[in-house]
Predict the 3D structure of the following.
Amino acid sequence: MNAPLPVVLAAALLSAAIATMPADAAPRKKNTRALAAVSPAAGVAQDRFLACDVRVRDYLREGGAAIRVTKIEVDDARLQLNIHHEYGEAGKSSRKYLRGDTEEEMRKNLRGILDEFAAAAKAATAGRAWYVIAARKVMPDLRDNSGETTNPWTAIVLADFEGKCRPITFYQSVDRNKLNPELSKKLDE
């Protein structure tokens, strides 16, 4: 009877040792992973244009200005936005049109537009939207215009939505004479 007791005791100690080893090792591994994930981010400064860093700089390569959008007012009846920035008001965007063959498809499209507008307004409030005035020749969508306007400046509103840069609206022409003098001066810098 004495012989089985040491075997049982040894088995109990061995199983207790095995049971505690993964519990001790697991937190160390998690902490190591957490430190590895935090370390690179801590050493790199966040860009002021967030996810729109590359696009903003690409548009500004031939001059222009990028200014923070302070407020976006949503006109849900006309499906357009009114953009406000640090130097005043950019004006109303062009209207969005509902697409779809059936009323249900149009309603789905409407919900998508209103969700996008709400996200844009939220991004502006959080300081994640920019009004970029750029030279017409660097704007890919406007470069091949048929010469309708002679104004060399155009604008785009960009916003960071959950880490992705999204265009909100375009302005075909920006009249430099109607801009705030300080903003007009920034176009030449």
